[in-house]
Each structure stands twice: as C-alpha cells, then as structure tokens.
Design goal:
The chain is of the alpha/beta class. The protein contains nine helices and 23 strands. A hairpin with a 2-residue loop joins strand 7 and strand 8. The protein is globular, with a radius of gyration of 21 Å. The C terminus is likely disordered.
C-alpha cells in the first residue's frame, strides 16, 4: 500500500453543503483521495489527523469549464510551467479542476498549447500541483463573424469535413474536449455531428442562429450554451433567437459569467428563476489580466483595458472577465441562491457537463475529495484536491493538542 493510499484525514466541526441540504456540525472522513464518510462532528480521541473547521462551510470544489487565464498567463499560448503556476493560483480561489480555454488562433499556436496541456495533465497525476487540468475548451474557431465579440475573425473557419483533422487534441484517455460552435456557419450541423462522434462536448455560442437551425443542432447532439446571453443575438419579441430557444428548452443547459458586468444582477436573478440552478453552470471567462487590477494589458495581439472590473478591447467589446469562480459564487449567494444551488452551479453541473459527475462535483461518499472551505464572508480558507491540501493554513489536531500551523505535505 502506498503512502497516498494510507492517507487519512478528518475534517471536523464543519457546515457541509450536500447536494440537497446543508448539514451543521458535521465531519468528512477522507481516506486516500476519496470521501470515505459523512458523519456527525467528533469529539473523541483519534490517532488520525483532524482539521477543526468550526464556523466554516465546506463546498464541493469549484470546476471552471471556461477560463482563458489570470496573473499574466494566457492559456492559448502558455507553457506547461505557466499552466502549473495558474493551476496553483486557481486553487487559492477554490477551483479544484478546470478546462483551459483557447481563443481562435493559428494551428501552430494550438499545437504548442495542446502539448503544454498534455504535459501538465501527465505531471499532475503524480504530484501536488493545484487545480487539475481536465482537458481543453476551444472557444471557436467555428463561430459567427456577426457575433465575434472579442475573438479575432482572421482565425475563424467554416467546416467542410477535414478541418477537425488539423485541430490538435490532448491524446490522453482521461482528457475532456469541449468546443463552442455557431451552428449556422457553413457546415455547422455536420460539425456538431462530427464532434459528437469523436466524444467532444458541443456548446452553442457566438451565434445568431434561428430556431430551426438550433433545433437541428440539438438533434445532432449540442445541449449546452456558452456564456448565455453574451455574444449571441439579443432577445427580441418578434425574432426569438438563441436566447429564447435556450430558455424554452429544459433539455439545454447554459453557463453564465456572474460578474455583474456581462449580465446585470437582475438578469442573473431572472435566469436563476427561469432556468433553475439545475441547468446553470457558473464560469469565470477570466483573462490573463485577472488579478492585476485596472490598466492596459497586451492580450491576444491587442490591448485590453480593465477599468472598474470591466474589460474592453479597442473596439469597445467586452473581452472576457477579471473574476474567479469564488467571486461568481459569492455574487449568486448575494442574489438569493441557496448554498446547495450555488454548489450545483459551481461544481455539480460542470462535472455533469464533462461526464465526470460519477467521481467529482459533490460531497458524497465515494467521490473524490475535491473540497473548498469558505468563511462567513465567502472567502476561501482551504482547498483540497484529491484529499490533499493545495491551499490554506489551518488548525490541525494531531491527537488531542491543537496547533495553528501551515499544512505539512509530510503529514498530508
């Protein structure tokens, strides 16, 4: 039996956000990488490592399926070392797993970036390395020029059948692949079919498709929508486009940028009411300028300005966000979402979208111990990935003597 297999940990005296309720004064038993038990808080002696979480709340670890970067790292053109640095930063924000998201770029750029992703995924399997990279999300290049947003049109493509052979993928069996597609482009429906045949997740976005085309895309296997209401034809009472279609279909899920900029807080409330937490995934859509504050930043071959939490390019288009997933969760809680609803939107639903909800995304026995601990203000205090500390300083009870210390990898 290896050292990780012997690893045993008790998170004690916590509030637990379970799939259907919040449990007070509870404990999570962790053995190895997985949750072994959920029980009442313990006050008895034990020879295992006990972490006292009194006054704190444990959520399932957040999963970000749409993020372009932060702290100067741009996922579309990042080295494995840079991705590792970003992964460690994401853990400080409660993110335990993520999909690096590429904007449309040259094939050579994609090839280098995919090689870096594959190297990162291989390395993280053997050592502590922050939030786990799960695969890749291509935002384009098969999207509409009429809804380009901040994406660069010179890299946009249509589909005739051969283009996917030139698009690099992560050649690891565990890697997930997701693509945002506008189904109305030339060959768009055939593209959706081809992606689904290869096991890719297809999300509809950067689109002005009408209802007939959207219905065809749904029949072909597209059942999700990218940053809903942003970069798609606006809702109109005589022209029900992607937004009306997405609201009408209960079998279609969507993701939202909950920063109060991409969507007004009242629109977030409305979408929570209309779609329900079970059909919403929170994303950051964060860019490389995230974490640096106001200023001008060279990103994607242009200057992107950040002012008062809003991004814009030279054309005045919003160019991603500067939030992290913990910011999105705090905003949704402030807008009236319950804690189980917030956990579903930030963890359970993205895990389900990626086909990984059997092993992560909720606090349940047998699932991977990907957990984030928040204080009363919603600030991240501790992040565990696979039962091991990736961020935090906390009270450890070894036997019966409490001490406040940084977590020691030799112990955990």
């Amino acid at each position: 039996m290896g050292k990780d297999d012997e690893h045993s940990l008790l998170l004690n005296n916590a509030r637990l956000v379970l799939p259907d309720r919040v449990v007070e004064e509870a404990a999570i038993q962790i053995k190895g990488e997985r949750i072994a038990g959920i029980e009442a808080a313990s006050d008895g002696a034990t020879d295992q490592t006990v972490v006292d979480l009194q006054g704190l709340t444990v959520f399932p670890g957040f999963i970000d399926v749409h993020i372009h970067g932060a702290l100067g790292v741009d996922t579309t053109d990042a080295s494995a070392s840079a991705l590792g640095s970003l992964a460690r930063h994401l853990a400080t924000k409660g993110v335990t797993a993520w999909l690096p998201t590429f904007v449309p770029a040259a094939t050579g750029t994609y090839q280098r970036s995919i090689a870096a992703l594959a190297e990162t995924i291989s390395k993280q399997a053997s050592k502590s390395s922050g939030a786990r990279v799960l695969g890749v999300h291509y935002e384009g290049p098969f999207v509409s020029r009429l809804q380009c947003g901040a994406l660069h049109e010179e890299f946009f493509q249509t589909f005739s059948g051969a283009e996917l052979d030139e698009l690099p993928r992560v050649n690891l069996p565990e890697a997930r692949h997701m693509m945002t597609v506008a189904p109305e482009i030339e060959g768009g429906i055939e593209l959706v079919k081809a992606l689904r045949a290869r096991g890719w997740i297809v999300s509809l976005g950067h689109t002005r498709a009408d209802l007939a085309v959207l219905d065809q895309a749904l029949a072909a296997g597209a059942r999700h929508m990218t940053h809903f209401m942003n970069a798609m034809a606006p809702l109109h009472h005589r022209s029900p486009g992607p937004i009306a279609w997405g609201l009408l279909h209960d079998d279609v899920t969507c993701d939202l940028i909950a920063d109060g900029v991409h969507l007004d807080p009242n629109m977030l409330r409305l979408l929570l009411k209309l779609k329900g937490a079970e059909r919403i995934t929170l994303i950051s859509d964060a860019i490389a300028a995230t974490g640096f504050g106001d200023g001008d930043y060279p990103i994607w071959g242009e200057t992107i300005t950040v002012k008062d939490g809003k991004t814009s390019n030279v054309h005045g288009s919003i160019a991603g966000s500067v939030i992290m997933m913990d910011d999105a969760v705090r905003l949704m809680l402030a807008l009236g979402a319950s804690e189980p609803e917030a956990a579903r939107m930030a963890a359970t639903n993205p895990a389900r979208l990626l086909g990984l909800d059997h092993e992560r995304g909720s606090i349940e026995i047998g699932k991977q111990a990907d957990l984030v601990v928040l204080d009363e203000a919603g600030k991240v205090q501790l992040t565990l990935v696979g039962g091991r500390k990736e961020y935090g300083t906390f009270r450890i009870f070894a036997g019966s003597t409490p001490r406040k210390t940084e977590w020691d990898e030799a112990v955990l």
